[in-house]
Amino acid sequence: MTRFGPIRTALFVPGSRPDRVDKALDAGADVIIIDLEDAVPLSLKEETRSKVHEKVLEHDGRRIIVRVNAIGSGFCQGDLDEVVVKELGCIMLPKVESPEHIREINHRLVRLEEERDMDSGTVSIIPLIESARAVQNIFPILSEKTEPARVLTAAFGAADYSLDLGMEITKQGSELNYPRARIAVACRAAGLEPPLDTPFMIDLKDTEGLKADAIRAKQLGFQGKLCIHPNQILACHAVFSPSKEEIQHAEKVIQAFKEAEAEGVAAIQLDGKFIDYPVVERARRTLKIAKKMET
Hints:
The protein is α/β, with parallel strands linked by helices.
């Protein structure tokens, strides 16, 4: 299964605009998502596939994900037939609502990988959680065991989720706390990477609103955010990257605890704060993320 490392930002690019793919790759996002679903009109879906195929081959080794159409859309298999190549590391699958969807997409990927003499499990899956049913079934979805393992993490799509529930997304975002929390907890419980949060779509010019929304997601356990415009990248990186102070504190925690352990102590105070094994583990994770950000 493909591992991308920390994903602070995943920038959507319409598959029907291959010229934007090149620009997006230079925009600074951790990964880009070439979209065959919502960003492509029905009349252009079939002809767009070959363009996306060419871009995946052209940028072999770059951090590219392709969002295919949903399993029940009538377009999914055609998308997979075109884009599943050894150069592609991951697909995003929209409208996932049950473990059966994971089993079905795995079955299709296994067949294509075998036909194309690809290593089994070359293409990972990021299920997009976009409905009440999906949120309700989130742990069974993410803990579904396939051979080979496929699910990298999950992503939250609040636009379709809010439509499903007949509610309005507000700037304060409190209405999204429940699905966000369930998705993040399920990812952790299933042993997956932390999830990716929904795009901030209320106002593309509102950087402070975007940062506040990203902070809420981070506090609930998300590793990064889906982006729909390049101007959202820097703000999200600022939120989801460990700060210099956080890195220094993590180093200090680990060193102090190491010294305490050598003296037979497993719980200490540092700068007035209680330090034990869970706190040390969090510090180690912070340094691990920071190290990966340097590569």
